Amino acid sequence: MRRLSLFALLAVVLAVVLAVPLRAQSTAHEKLAREVYKQLIEINTVDSVGSVTKAVEALAVRFKAAGFPDADIHVLIPTNAPTKGNLVVRYRGRGGVGAPKPLLLLAHLDVVAALRADWPRDPFTLNEENGFFLGRGTSDDKSMASIFATNLLWMKQEGVVPDRDIILALTADEEGGSSNGAHWIATEHKDLIDAEYAINEGGDGALINGKPVTNGVQAAEKVSVNFTFTALNSGGHSSMPRPDNAIYALTKALLKVSEFEFPVVLNPVTTAYLLQSSKAMPDPAVAAAMKAIVANPKDKKANAILAKDAFVHSVLRTTCVATRLAGGHANNALPQTATSNVNCRIEPTSTYEYVKSTLERVVGDTGVKITLIGNALKGVVGAPPSAVPAEFLGAVTAITKKMWGDIPVVPNMSTGATVLRRGRAEHARPRREDSRQVVLRRARLPRSAGADTDGKNKDVSHFHTHSALLLTPRPPLMRLLARVATTLALTAGIASAQSATTTDTRADRLKAELATAIDGRAKLAQQMVDQVFSFGELGMQEFESSKYLTGILEKNGFTIVRGVAGIPTAWTARWGSGSPVIALGSDIDGIPQSNQKPATAAKDWIVPGAPGHGEGHNSGVPLNIIAALAVKDIMVREKISGTIMLWPGVAEEQLGSKAYLVRAGVFKDVDANLFAHVSDEFGISWGDEPALALISAIFKFKGESAHAAAAPWRGKSALDAVMNMGNAWEFHREHMELSQRSHYVITDGGDQPNVVPSTASIWFYLRERDPARVTQMFEDAKQIARGAAMQTFTKLDTVVMVGSAWRPHFNKPIAVAMHANAVKVGMPKWDANDQSMAKGVQRILGKPDTGLTTKVAPLRSPEEAAAASSGTGSDDIGDVTWTVPSVTLYYPANIPGTPGHNWADGIAMATPIAHKGVVAGAKVQAMTLLDLMLSPPLVTDAKRYFTDVQTKTVTYKPLMSPADQPAIWLNAEKMAKYRELMRPFYYDATKFSTYLEQLGIKYPTMPGSVP
Predict the structure, then answer these.
(1) What is the pLDDT of residue 463?
(2) Which helix (H) or strand (E) holds 256?
(3) What mean pLDDT is predicted for residues 479-490?
């Protein structure tokens, strides 16, 4: 007898699901699956004329014959509903002390009524034609019931012993009827289904011309609500008609409803659905419309295109439609009463009151009364959409790829409802701090709120339907639906790779604790942000910043290594032991001439001409420190193994350090790297970043000096060589490709006009997407430099590599996990002063005063990231991303619309905007760090993406040569000039609560009120 953990067990089960021939029994397994499937399809289980009891009794016979004890097989039949039987079967795991609670597999056996006259063949006979199964219930939900039952029968035959019990519950009346089995069992026999997790139907997939193009994970669902429209009249004889006819009044009201369209309301789930589905759409217009409606939900053109698809149209909004009609009492009498049932499928963040009042407004004052059927419900109709757990999404994605290739896994919102709706609502309660959307804890299953959405089998079809002719892929049976992969992937996702008790429940609890702990360190975050802001140091000269930040880490038990890679201001800080090793990085350097007073919406120096944080690099390392300290505390208490490493990006503005850190082996044992960069939103993306590879180099020329007036012929001007090189490069620019960018400054043009310059230098930035092509640009520049020297009888003395950068490529599995955490955390709670500050800055810059961002941006694909960016910047984080799986967290600590590398970008960076943004960003960073510490599969997936996707055809090669050394001399003269002038303005946290208080600045200070 084999004993398997749930995780290992599911690996075997999934292999069978994927029809991988593990052994000869695979064929027998598939044969059994088809037999069970056929048996269930051919038992009529329609509410009114069929019998679910007959179906469950037939399955009970199979389980008994397979060796399941009678005590573990329960046929449960309500006393007042003899045809509405339910089946509960328990598959025994190892049990004993410490065994995890059971897993519940839930499916329903009832089907929607099928009239024989509407079908070209008997709906209750399993038919196979042209590669599809046809029959009532082939999809919803007898396929899932067959899969669950067959796998348990096979596991029993194989002698598999899972770590936990597995409970199968097959129920009646999910589609309607008065005896909802899930609700009844949860009420009357809760002990039989008491479980830690439940897996239910709900995932959705799509076919285009019979080919799978998307796989879906249901993360939200609409709510079915019915209203009665009633028109009353005094009546009369039909021989004397009057205009105030009740039927006419009702008809006019219903026509108005039919012509009305509720506005588009998107949530994170439907946004993700549209963006992901757009990639699979064969019609470019539909794909473009999906993206456009996300960008602007009021886009009428996009709405008109998408409205042609009933499913997509319904996903976008609340819908209301008349479904039943009655009126009058005699053929020769004017009607005294006319009624209609209007069924509304309400998007889950809406309210009953809003829908009812909207319908009343649309109908107008016609005498038609609108009444909500059922209780006088108030408030939000459903549970809020839920973030998809990273482990779950990763498992689904991996299985989907094996089954159908590289098709997108799409979070979706069902336009119908399942018994899971209340379960999601339970998990949405604030005390839960739990966003798992496809799991019911304790199996609290309510009566169904309605049936699933109808579908169409045309060019584009959705798997999960109630249409008269249901199409399901042909054998192997275990590939029936995308929904199957979703179901089993969740089972794998909820299993811990470390232990049976390390589940999302634990992770969610710890994440809630992290958020609280980080809020408790908000004061420390503010102090660090303000302190580094006040230092305002330029690249390679970040001595005060590094000393201060490493001091904090050292006091908290981190081991510091200074002077890393030969860079005096570079360092690493490590804590912990063992794997995984997770790095947290961010930049610390400032920008020239940006020593701006914070909180002042006008250009106003602290020290005129001095450098400052006009990029916001004062905030990233403080964010990482707050995140690391919070996770460290939990790791100590929970005895979680792993190592945290913090490191700073030095001289990022000159791309001067990270390639050297890579060359020095700083990341050689790192499993994943989480970088942080200031932004005005939570911007998270995966794949190629829309940035350029770069080489930064100074070309130094040497000539001979002479008196420029008395004996110029005796001189050889190095400045002439510099100007010749610049001029020649401009001629060369005409023949450069459009993707290439280059710019330069003259850093040394001689000493004074009356001396022929003996030295001169020109500093070039060369950029291109492809690292090899930017290297060729560098070679072109060297050749032009040599020619310029020859033309001026000077010498090209040296070519100094100042910095270099590959274009970044971010890791998809980590990005997915990080974005889920950003959704969980949400945007900071901006107050009126924050918004006033932002709008004031936007106005002085001539930008729309839209204020601060309030919604978390969707996870961006490479295409979406490129569309949102000019794509012409560079960042030496790229070298790190090609060395270790990495993602950059862009966090909301600055004001939208600022130009970047500008004094205006420093306005917010020592204000509550930055403080709140850093706290929110620290929560996301900490939660993602915890995900990596608790979930080895996430680390494995990240490495697999790195090796199998990112670096499959690309090999990283540094752009600098082995002889090149870090330009540690950068900015030394500038900081020597300004440091002592800036020192009196360093923040003193022992005397002042905030830097604004120390500077005497009111928050916010608007134009016209500058101190």
Answers:
(1) 39
(2) helix 246-259
(3) 35
Tell me which DSSP letter residue 752 carries. Answer: -
pLDDT above 70 (res 383): no
Token representation of residue 421: 């709706």
Task: Give SS3 for 315.
Answer: helix
User: Quick check: 673 and 645 in contact, CB under 8 A?
Assistant: no
Q: Which of 268, 269, 266, 290 is nearest to 278 (CA)?
A: 290
Question: How do residues 664-697 score in pLDDT, each as one tens digit?
Answer: 999 999 999 999 999 999 999 999 888 889 999 9
Q: Is the distance from CB of 876 to CB of 657 less than 8 angstroms?
A: yes
Convert 211-244 to b/e letters by CB count within 10 Å (16 or more is b).
ebbbbbbbbbbbbbbbbebbbbbebeeeeeeeee
What average pLDDT score do residues 119-124 get?
85
As beta bridge partners, residue 161 has 3
| Cα–Cα dist 271/857, whole Å | 10
- Reading the block at residue 739, the tokens are 């993707």
Residue 361 confidence class, pLDDT cut points 50, 70, 90: very high
CA distance 721 to 727: 10
Q: Which of 722, 782, 783 is nearest to 747 (CA)?
A: 722
Tell me if the bond preceding 580 is cis, omega within 30° of 0: yes
Alpha carbon separation from 213 to 53, 97, 217, 455, 461 (Å, rounded)? 37, 45, 14, 16, 10
The pLDDT value recorded for residue 522 is 95
Q: Is the peptide bond before 385 cis (omega within 30 degrees of 0)?
A: no
- 684 to 546, 655, 687, 814: CA distances (angstroms): 27, 22, 11, 10
Q: State yes or no: pLDDT of 18 exceeds 90.
A: no
Q: Place 229 in a pLDDT band, splitting at 50, 70 and 90.
A: very high
Q: Please answer whether residues 324 and 340 qualify as being in contact, where contact means their C-beta atoms are separated by less than 8 angstroms.
A: yes
- What are the φ/ψ torsions at residue 59 (nearest 5 degrees)? -70, -35
Go through the chain and tell me how many residues it has: 1011
Q: Which SS3 state, helix, strand or coil, does residue 577 take?
A: strand
The answer to whether residue 453 scores a pLDDT higher than 60 is no
CA 537 to chain centroid, in Å, comes to 35
Query: CB-side exposure of 838: number of CA atoms within 13 Å?
Result: 23
Query: Looking at residue 116, what DSSP letter applies?
Result: G
Helix (H) or strand (E) holding 767: strand 759-768
HSE at residue 133, side-chain half, CA atoms within 13 A, is 27
Which helix (H) or strand (E) segment holds residue 37: the answer is: helix 25-41
pTM for the model stands at: 0.55
Nearest-angstrom CA–CA distance, 926 and 507: 12
